[in-house]
Amino acid sequence: xxxxxxxxxxxxxxxxxxxxxxxxxxxxxxxxxxxxxxxxxxxxxxxxxxxxxxxxxxxxxxxxxxxxxxxxxxxxxxxxxxxxxxxxxxxxxxxxxxxxxxxxxxxxxxxxxxxxxxxxxxxxxxxxxxxxxxxxxxxxxxxxxxxxxxxxxxxxxxxxxxxxxxxxxxxxxxxxxxxxxxxxxxxxxxxxxxxxxxxxxxxxxxxxxxxxxxxxxxxxxxxxxxxxxxxxxxxxxxxxxxxxxxxxxxxxxxxxxx
Length: 258
Ligand SMILES: [Zn+2]
Ligand SMILES: [Zn+2]
Fold this sequence. Notes:
Elements: E1 2-7, E2 14-19, E3 22-26, H1 32-41, E4 51-53, H2 59-62, H3 65-72, E5 76-78, H4 80-90, E6 98-100, E7 105-107, E8 111-117, E9 126-132, E10 137-141, E11 160-164, H5 169-174, H6 179-186, H7 194-204, E12 211-215, H8 224-237, E13 243-246, E14 256-257
Parallel strand pairs: 3-4, 4-5, 5-6, 10-11, 11-12, 12-13
Antiparallel strand pairs: 1-2, 1-14, 2-3, 7-8, 8-9, 9-10
Helix pairs in contact: 7-8
This protein binds zinc ion (ZN) (2 copies).
The site of one zinc ion has 6 residues, from helix 2.
């Protein structure tokens, strides 16, 4: 399998995954032009993509969904709840390329996609557990308001996890966001703090886990260093050695192969 986070943060999110030889994109929250530039940077030919999975309808996840679906004749998988809200922003999607998520499904007979609901303030938000027929598993969930025990099974035995580490609690309180926005971010339907996500990684850790990406790092209430250090300290305290990488907003992570 191969994975690269093309970019992550409040200005756009997109993750490229090649699982069992099936190239997939999870979210497309950048302009079509930026997405094409990022594909070039990671040396991926976008016309090879087989599917685009959408986690939820916030603009930092769907900005380029309609554009690249039309440009690449790419099927998109989205919940009906998110589609209803996002319809105008997405523009016309060819009938055969609009596929509503209702339970698990397969892509090309090689990737088993298992969506799961998470707490976040969109019409509906899902994370994805992707199981390849080659035995590799990736879990992607970038906007998660709170860690609940019911999502734990979806992380079981994953090789790679992409999880948000959105804000530092102290920086969020000190930054100049309006009070209501601070409340929204910190609520159980907002985003995960560094402390929340490092605890989650520590608890979901298993010996098969090869790599964790920290995603959706806020530019106003966090730093890449703080997100990384908080998780590394937590893992250290649990005597866990793990490859942890931060996903950046403005450039892709190097292609990781497993
Ligand atoms: Zn969101
Ligand atoms: Zn987001």
